[in-house]
């Protein structure tokens, strides 16, 4: 089954930027584009029944889609306007998509509210990659030789899905993958005879981290031999190191393992920080 790239639109400038990004990516990957808008009937609008409101919504979506079709006349585009709760509709659409693309507001407290109310729930529930795009995203950044930046941590299997997405995206764009691994000094009680031997064999902490990154990248280098790869290993907090490199990226790819708590779904501090502060589009890929 061919999975489409699905873009969620709501008429905002952020969602229109996401739609534009999704259209370009669909063309690169040779995939169809699905455009989805979820709306709720507002009985407070006097004189506007459900059919009337549906007509208004459909007209707005059609105008947005018209621009994409004009830019990409050979792109197969389908449109779905559904009545229902947005998080449920978007997360459900992601199940059948290669990726879900959404708009994300800029820096500041409003972004935190967006992630907490809609975006965070969609990201936490989606089983497929979710890409967030800001208003003002420029296609020129994709052609300026900027890298696809991806965060890697743990053992090779921990980030396999994240690395796969990064390499597939870089291959479609003719871009370099810049893989980032951050490390910190472990607490003294974390050392054991076995871990000390591993560190000694590697020649120290930083060489050990470099070996770990190289090992994680090896299968993807073999699978995508034409994709250039740059390795970045730096001591520091994962979020700060990743953001320092993401400033030169056309796309940043992070993984997530959603956690649920009494206050709802949490997507992890590193992912949350990158979504708040990265200037480029961010792809959040669920761990397998």
Automatic annotation (TrEMBL):
Organism per entry: Streptomyces yokosukanensis
Stated name of the protein: Universal stress protein
Pfam families attached to this UniProt entry: Usp
Domain UspA: residue ranges: 1-134, 155-286
Domain of life: Bacteria
Family statement: Belongs to the universal stress protein A family.
InterPro entries: Rossmann-like_a/b/a_fold, Universal_stress_UspA, UspA
């Amino acid at each position: 089954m061919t999975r489409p790239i699905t873009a969620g639109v709501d008429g905002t400038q952020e969602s229109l930027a996401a739609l534009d990004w999704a259209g370009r990516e669909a063309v690169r990957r040779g995939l169809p584009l699905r455009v989805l808008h979820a709306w709720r009937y507002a009985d407070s609008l006097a004189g506007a029944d459900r059919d009337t409101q549906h007509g208004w919504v459909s007209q707005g979506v059609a105008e947005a889609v018209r621009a994409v079709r004009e830019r990409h006349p050979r792109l197969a585009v389908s449109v779905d306007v559904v009545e229902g709760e947005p998080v449920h509709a978007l997360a459900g659409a992601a199940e059948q998509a290669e990726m879900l693309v959404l708009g994300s507001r800029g820096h500041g407290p409003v972004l935190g509210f967006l992630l907490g109310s809609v975006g965070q729930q969609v990201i936490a529930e989606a089983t497929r990659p979710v890409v967030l795009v800001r208003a003002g995203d420029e296609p020129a950044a994709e052609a300026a030789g900027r890298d696809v930046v991806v965060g890697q941590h743990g053992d090779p299997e921990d980030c396999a899905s994240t690395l796969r997405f990064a390499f597939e995206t870089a291959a479609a764009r003719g871009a370099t993958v810049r893989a980032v691994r951050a490390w910190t000094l472990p607490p003294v009680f974390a050392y054991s005879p076995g871990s000390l031997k591993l560190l000694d064999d590697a020649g120290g902490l930083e060489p050990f981290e470099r070996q770990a990154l190289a090992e994680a990248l090896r299968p993807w280098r073999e699978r995508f031999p034409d994709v250039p790869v740059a390795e970045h290993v730096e001591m520091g907090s994962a979020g700060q190191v990743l953001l320092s490199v993401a400033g030169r990226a056309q796309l940043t790819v992070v993984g997530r393992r959603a956690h649920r708590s009494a206050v709802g779904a949490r997507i992890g501090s590193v992912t949350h920080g990158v979504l708040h502060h990265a200037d480029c589009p961010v792809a959040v890929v669920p761990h397998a």
